[in-house]
Amino acid sequence: MLKLLWIALKVKWQECREFACVVWRFRSHKAFLLSYCLLAFLYLFSSPYSVSRRYLKWIDAGDVYSYGETPLTSLAEIADRTGIHASDHVFELGAGSGFTSLWLRLVKGCKITAVEWVPGFVYRLKWVVRVLKLSGVEVRCEDYLQTALENATVIYLFASNLDDLTINKLAERLAALPSGTRIASVSYPLQPYLKQPAFDLVERFEVCFPWGRADVYVQDVV
Ligand SMILES: C[S@@+](CC[C@H](N)C(=O)[O-])C[C@H]1O[C@@H](n2cnc3c(N)ncnc32)[C@H](O)[C@@H]1O
Description:
Layout: H1 2-25, H2 30-42, H3 48-58, H4 72-82, E1 89-93, H5 99-108, E2 111-116, H6 119-131, E3 137-141, E4 154-157, H7 164-175, E5 182-186, E6 199-209, E7 212-221
Parallel strand pairs: 1-2, 1-4, 2-3, 4-5
Antiparallel strand pairs: 5-7, 6-7
Helix pairs in contact: 2-5, 2-6
Bound molecules: S-adenosylmethionine.
The site of S-adenosylmethionine has 19 residues, from β2.
């Protein structure tokens, strides 16, 4: 119980620090800051962690505490080292609350398709997109093992709690994307989950996440 309370306090502190860092660092991106504050407002009384927890309880998932977010300061590093440009169309598989998708669209300038199956995340993000009349952001309430991946030039995948079978299914899908499609995955590379050679590892580096440091693997479909 005490341990959970300690983790909750640590997460709250990190959230506040991240909020201040984001506002300061991206202060010149007014459209992004507006969308960021609007979306943050929608989570004022129910954090992304509780939205995810409620959904996971509802579907009777084994681990209901598995939600996590990429801090935007870390996402900036991931985007740079992955080589994401304004001409890219990024598919975020498991977009969560959607702060990352808004950042990719409004700071990096790329087109973004946010795929997320928790309706509580999807309707909030869709609302922000609609109210601010944002173009180049598509939000889908779908399973990323099923959703169409046409036109993706970059995939961002942060899903460290998946079982091996699911990662294998996902890797099979991603291996079928056109050659040169770039995939940034957090915590594990995809190649070990396949028998046939399908991905070229381009880079591996560490970034900060709320629970500590994690490896990011950048790989290209061969
Ligand atoms: C670890 S969170 C990452 C959120 C966000 N991408 C980020 O980096 O901040 C993973 C998200 O994937 C979603 N998710 C898990 N399995 C999914 C599936 N099969 N289809 C769509 N979304 C899924 C979860 O609901 C969760 O919001």
